[in-house]
Design a protein that fits this description.
Elements (H helix, E strand, L loop, with lengths): L4 E2 L14 H4 L8 H12 L10 E15 L12 E15 L3 E14 L7 E15 L2 E13 L15 E15 L2 E14 L2 E3 L2 E3 L6 E15 L2 E14 L12 E15 L2 E14 L7 E13 L4 E12 L8 E16 L2 E15 L4 E14 L4 E14 L6 E13 L15 E2 L5 E21 L2 E24 L2 E10 L4 E5 L3 E19 L5 E19 L2 E21 L4 E12 L2 E4 L5 E18 L8
Parallel strand pairs: 1-10
Antiparallel strand pairs: 2-3, 2-21, 3-4, 4-5, 5-6, 6-7, 7-8, 8-11, 9-10, 11-12, 12-13, 13-14, 14-15, 15-16, 16-17, 17-18, 18-19, 19-20, 20-21, 22-24, 23-24, 23-32, 24-25, 25-27, 26-27, 27-28, 28-29, 29-30, 30-32, 31-32
Length: about 625
């Protein structure tokens, strides 16, 4: 612990960990996710082999990436953009066979920021996973992982220091699956430890020792197959969370214990589609009587599908209680969902899209947040061991507390290599899979818009500051021209667009100010899935330049400015093909713009940060070949 400690301002920060569906979701319930996944695979695998089937495999890989983020500190106003250069090496050694095996894995991410070098980080992890099949109906698995990580600026517990918080996480698990006829049981346990370093701060350092803790959980699921492909189950878990410090920096004892119980069913609909759903209760009790006990419902669901033509996807819902450092709050209840899909029409080419949402409900204080995330990616193999890829990520938080909304766009270009070769045998040339029929080819579209302009305003007021959100909605119109190609079911295209005035808002009080989003134009890329009827489901990422008309009247002095601001954003939509070359389209689009300052006095400014969201409805015409059979 450093000599100069500062009470951290974590009460002013609330958000979500980096927007990854895997980090948010756990449809398996109380047992560790990996344990359940292995147990499920074990139930469907072959019996133990008496022959010598030991084999070993080594894989090495490395990714080099360049990322642009338009808001590296996840703030609503005064955003900071930067380029991030990262190197991600990894290695995996697997030894074993059908009856037993061990996998040792090591990974890292070394990132360097172009201008904000205080955000640089080195993350590493090492893990081991083991499995041993005692008999066809009895499988044991176990393992552990140790991580040296940094806390994301979008974390609920980001300390808001001058550098990211560093921490170490240790994790170990063990699980068993036992089956007897139609009955099965899964038993598992985990132990997890966290150790946080103090965070650099302008006035010294921020104490994080009171966040060090140990979490222990044990649970079981018991089920029965009631018919082919259908089983029902009950599950329960108990856990304990113990902090190293008796009290945190705000005087709260955060030690707690809890349990969960649920019942559900699992269904295998076909060799390509399976799912499960469950519901129950969650309880958590805190040693500190001033922290409210939590009793709430539990719900979880998971649907997975994998089509023969290369399309796969999943839908997940999860609900859980997470730790917090917000003074007066015992925890937050995290309800999250994710929808993801990926398509690989050729061994050289794959693409995917995921949508996530999470609601944070803090217990004991009047505070809640909702965050949505979008991730789109495309990967192309240049050779059997070398690939290139592009990723786009968007996150947006809406908070019940003014000033804590944020949006962030990240665009990443990467080049990677791996030791294990990609199998292209018998696949044929990629050009042989390009389909000349619609929705491929050139297209024109016209659309109407109904959207909202929301502005986060931040500026000085007397001895303090004023942070507030303003907004309104309006109608507009626009047009687009683009070109795309279809590779089996995968659509890849580019698009240019232009839009008219759409939404404006005004505030009339002691100070009068208003904002109007005028004309805009931009371009982007589109990635989508083509149905049998040539309808197109797509996601897009784009860059837009829009003119904003801002008027400000304070103390009798009026300021009016017209400025073009750069925006980054995404859209998701559907284009329904008719029997000819025409189509109808519907789309939802979001764009967040660079913030700007408006003078409110001789040496004072208010900062305006604009976000625009739109529903678009329109029609279009394509030049692609018409498939009469469609």
């Amino acid at each position: 612990m450093t000599a100069n400690l500062t009470k951290r301002p974590r009460a002013l920060k609330a958000g979500v960990r980096r927007f990854s569906a895997a980090a948010l979701m756990s449809a398996a319930g109380a047992i560790p996710d990996y344990a359940f996944a292995q147990a499920q695979q074990a139930a469907e695998s072959e019996p133990a082999s008496t022959e010598s089937d030991i084999a070993a495999g080594l894989d090495l890989w490395v990714d080099a990436a360049t990322t642009f983020s338009d808001n590296i500190f996840a703030t609503q106003n005064d955003k900071a953009a930067d380029f991030i250069f990262s190197l991600e090496p990894g290695a995996k050694l697997s030894i074993g066979g059908k009856s037993a095996g061990v996998t040792i894995r090591g990974e890292g991410e070394v990132a360097r920021y172009d201008r904000n070098t205080g955000e640089d980080y080195d993350d590493w992890s090492a893990s081991v996973e083991t499995r041993a099949r005692i008999s066809r109906d009895f499988l044991l698995i176990g393992g552990g992982e140790y991580q040296w990580e940094h806390e994301s600026r979008t974390s609920p517990d980001d300390a808001n220091g001058s550098a990211p918080t560093q921490y170490e996480r240790g994790y170990a698990f063990g699980a068993a699956l036992i089956r007897s006829g139609a009955f099965y049981t899964r038993i598992g346990a985990t132990i997890e430890s966290f150790e946080f370093s103090d965070t650099e701060f302008t006035a010294g350092s921020i104490n994080n020792a009171d966040r060090d803790r140990l979490q222990i959980e044990a649970g079981a699921r018991a089920g029965v197959d009631v018919s082919k492909g259908l089983s029902v189950f009950i599950q329960g878990a108990q856990d304990r969370r113990e902090y190293d410090s008796e009290l945190d920096d705000f005087g709260f004892d955060r030690d707690s214990n809890g349990y969960s119980a649920a019942a559900g069913l699992r269904r295998v609909f076909s060799p390509y589609v399976s799912g499960e759903i469950y519901g129950g209760v969650i309880h958590r009790n805190y040693r500190d009587a001033s922290l409210p006990t939590i009793n709430t419902f539990d719900i979880g669901a998971e649907l997975k599908w994998k089509a023969p033509e290369g399309l796969s996807g999943s839908f997940q819902i999860d609900r859980r209680i997470e730790e917090t450092t917000l003074p007066g709050a015992s925890a937050y209840i995290l309800t999250s969902g994710a929808l993801s899909a990926s398509l690989s029409p050729h061994p050289r080419l794959s693409s995917g899209l995921s949508l996530t949402g999470a609601h944070f409900d803090y217990e004991g204080v009047d505070r809640s947040e909702f965050i949505v995330g979008v991730n789109a990616w495309t990967k192309y193999w240049l050779s059997r061991r070398l690939f290139a890829g592009v990723d786009y990520n968007f996150a947006q938080r809406t908070s019940s507390a003014a000033g804590f909304d944020f949006s962030e766009n990240r665009l990443t270009a990467r080049l990677g290599a791996q030791l294990s070769p990609r199998d292209f045998a018998g696949a044929g040339a990629l050009s042989d899979f390009i389909d000349a029929t619609a929705p491929g080819g050139l297209y024109l579209a016209a659309f109407g818009t109904y959207g909202a302009l929301t502005t986060g305003l931040d500026g000085p007021r007397g001895s303090g500051t004023n942070t507030a959100d303003f907004g309104d909605s309006g109608l507009g119109y626009g047009g687009a021209v683009g070109y795309g190609v279809v590779v089996k079911r995968l659509y890849l295209g580019v698009e240019l667009e232009g839009t008219s005035d759409s939404a404006r808002w005004s505030h009339l009080s002691g100070r009068e100010f208003s904002a109007n989003k005028a004309n805009g134009f931009g371009g982007g890329v589109r990635v989508g899935y083509v149905t049998d009827r040539h309808d197109l489901f797509y996601g897009r990422f784009g860059v837009v330049s829009s003119e904003f008309e801002t008027r400000y009247v304070s103390h009798g002095a009026a300021v009016e400015e017209h400025e073009r601001e750069r925006g980054l954003g995404f859209g998701v939509g559907l284009e329904a093909q008719d029997h000819g070359r025409g189509f109808m389209k519907v789309e939802y689009a979001v764009a967040s713009y660079d913030d700007y300052d408006i003078a409110t006095g001789s040496s004072t400014f208010d900062n305006f940060a604009n976000i625009e969201s739109q529903f678009r409805f329109g029609v279009g015409l394509r030049t692609g070949v018409v498939d009469d059979a469609g």
